[in-house]
């Protein structure tokens, strides 16, 4: 009787998903949820521009919250999850006080609920990835998942499709960091090529049928910040000196350009050069909009109590933008131009809702991130994999300074920070630093 060869059963989808690095799976689901929601809002419901923001925020935060709840249900966290980090506990305390002030001041209830969801989910995401059970979550596992050719092709697809749509169908910061990291640190040529293609697609846009280069000043500053980190990591101190020297030389050259030459440059770069040359900020609507918002925030504090100076005007506080030269934020605001909630500059946005206490927390997060990087670099604990997390955290923090929503309404930032804290708490030889998850 013939003996049939053993047939290895093909694993099902759920089995393959369970083998993935958990943080990589979280990011993959986030990218798909964001893209699906963005496509549906633009092409089915006709919602575009700033008007999409509250709906995209709601969907991505509900996704993050659902992922955390499923993780808890399947026993994927240890007991430390139930004990918040002191900074997390402090954030929740400040949130509670700000919510009480917001309710007592009669602020917009929609935004009180929304920002409460942001912060509570952010603390939970930090705890969830800071306290995984076992070694299922690894820095190298996440990088292996994100930078597999199949995943990079998916990222490239969404970046390419967004060239021909009114809005991006991806989280800009995440895709930008993936592209730059692939070019700088991934070993294979195919990964570097895909990273370069993604970066190119991110900075291309269509206008009246013509494809053109698009870039903003926040992106330039953020790219410069992670380029600085990369040079420090590689110990290219001499190169770093010449890069800084070249940047100063390039700046001086840009300031020497004739105004007619500057006029032909991309809008954001043109505005930056003209402003540095002494042009009046009132002549540049988008730049002045941020200053105007700050003025309106400070006007709101003219009759503020000591408690409000300390803890802000409360969650849900809005500003009247009917007098703004840039009508776009008011036109797309959920409650209309008289009650605009989004304030671009990060320090004004935080101060308006959380006061000096909120600004103090913001400084602690920024200084803490710098300290963590410096300690890991000096102690020889930095690896290519952990540098990916620092890239995202630093890029996002710098990028959000003139665009606060990218930090405040972003569930990925606390998740990245939580996993990085978990990685840093492990011994240098721990699998959390070195082990790769099994491929999908």
UniProtKB/TrEMBL annotation:
Transmembrane segments: 23-41, 53-74, 86-104, 110-129, 141-163, 169-186, 217-233, 238-256, 354-375, 387-408
Domain of life from the UniProt record: Bacteria
Keywords noted in UniProt: Membrane, Transmembrane, Transmembrane helix
Protein's name in the database: O-antigen ligase domain-containing protein
Record organism: Rhizobium setariae
